[in-house]
Amino acid sequence: MRIERIFRLSFFVFLAALWLAGGGSAQTGVPAEVLRHADMILINGKVVTADKDFSSQEAVAIRDGKILAVGPTPRIRPLAGPRTKVVDLQGRAVIPGLIDSHMHFLRAGFTWAREVRLDQARSVQEVLSLVEKRGKQLKPGEWILTFGGWHYGQLKEGRAPARQELDRVLRRAAVPLALRKLPRASFEEKVQGLKLVIRDFHAAGLTGVIETIGGGVSDDDLQVLFEAWRRNELTIRTALLIYTGSLKDGQRWMRHLPMGFGDDWLRVNGFGERLVAAVQDSIAPAFPLKPEGLEEYRKFAGEAARNRWSIQQHTTLGTTAKAFLDIFEEVDRRHPIRDLRWSLAHVELISEADIRRVKRLGMGLTIQDRQVIGSELMGQAWGDAAASGPPLKKMLEIGVPVGAGTDATVVAPYQPFTTLWWLVSGKNWAGRVVRPNDRISREDALRMHTVGSAWFSFDEKVKGSIEPGKLADLVVLTDDYLTVPEDRIRDIRSVMTIVGGRIVYEAK
Ligand SMILES: [Zn+2]
């Protein structure tokens, strides 16, 4: 009897055996998922799915980079075959991969290899020991850089380390240096630097970002991102916003690049956070908007709408938010923008009336924890208004899409659990309550930092929660985010980060 006949016969015997085992489904009589085993299963844990019921399960199965099934361990374990990777979570918590909907990580790679990150420092002594440790990792004569992400106000002494203190730990002169005097990184150093940033982001629990470039990055530097993507080393899902300064810039990009171009790892996601330099506000309380700047912006927004491009616009002040919404409503009358998911970012001082206009336009808002280290500056600039900015509860009440993030790595720390802690506790890094009336639940905060952020890259149906069919982006945590004492939320990190079913980070 010819070999394939023997094979076909044994296969049908196998199927029949399974069917007899009571697993048969209506059509084939064999449960689909048994036909081919899972690539990985994670069992005996607390899988926080962040689905619409915010349900938790014990286990999850992954195949072909996607979630195959979630459920009790006894239902998931049989999906494992001889080659399936089985991860026993031993009760650990798992959440969907965290997505930062507004940050600047490309340029961070230019200096990351030489930086000492002080994001989590709480005292001058801690800063000095971090600098000393970094100094020992670098060769004599190499620069140690610290590039934002911290503010002396977060240190219990309320001051930065003195130069003499730094001299002592460095056994050589510490000098404040202007950016332009920094030794420039080569193309390859920038690509390698980006990999280091991504490694640290995965360790912090991040699996996706909306990258908004920012100052200090040339158009050619985008090649660094494309190169990491070409090498399959861009393991953090990146929705790319194009950062421009003028209408002319924008027109050039709209001529050469289609909105939405790319794949699940890197995709063109629109313009932002700056379109026209002249109307880019700051935290300074008054920012006069010049008519010619607004006119250029009106034209830019009109062309973006006509070409179906999305926009995420930097907006700190209430006055600026109002001006942009005036223009968006005008543009919407000519070119409806509802399905373009335009958004305003930061919005610490946006009014309730303007949040309602955002809702009517089908837009969303991305919020960042800039206040965690910027609370002193914001308090000086805005007075009491700083204590309720951004107005999160009002946003949830009105029901606008809200995405969470950091605006890191310069103006804020990059760790998403710092943001989650800030959202829930209303505290700044020094531990002082700076937003007493606007704290939100852990569930709402986690949603903002997962499926909430995914909305801004048109991805809420493919990522942001642990549900069958979605991309298998998830994080095994050092602690249970839903039950750990509030002040320890900021210390939670990843034990294992999985993107597309691939382990991209594992704690040692
Ligand atoms: Zn920004």
CATH superfamily of the largest domain: Metal-dependent hydrolases
- CATH architecture of the largest domain, please? Alpha-Beta Barrel
> Quick one: overall form?
globular
Number of strands: 18
Structural class: alpha/beta
Task: Write up this protein.
There is one protein chain. By secondary structure, this protein is α/β, with parallel strands linked by helices. The protein has three domains: 2-91, Urease, subunit C, domain 1, CATH 2.30.40; 112-181, no CATH class; 187-462 and 469-503, Metal-dependent hydrolases (TIM Barrel, Alpha-Beta Barrel), CATH 3.20.20.140. Helix content is 34%, strand content 17%. The chain has 17 helices and 18 strands. The protein has helices at 3-23, 32-35, 73-76, 108-111, 124-137, 163-170, 187-203, 222-230, 247-256, 291-306, 318-334, 352-360, 371-382, 392-398, 416-425, 442-448, 451-454; strands spanning 40-43, 46-48, 56-57, 59-63, 66-71, 85-88, 93-96, 98-103, 206-211, 237-242, 266-273, 311-315, 343-346, 364-368, 402-405, 474-477, 494-499, 502-506. The protein has an eight-stranded parallel β-sheet with strand order 8-9-10-11-12-13-14-15. Strands 3-2-7-16-17-18 form a six-stranded mixed β-sheet, covered by helices on one side. Strands 5-4-1-6 form a four-stranded mixed β-sheet. β9, α8 (222-230) and β10 (237-242) form a beta-alpha-beta unit. The chain is globular, with a radius of gyration of 25 Å. The mean pLDDT is 92. The site of zinc ion has 7 residues, from loops.
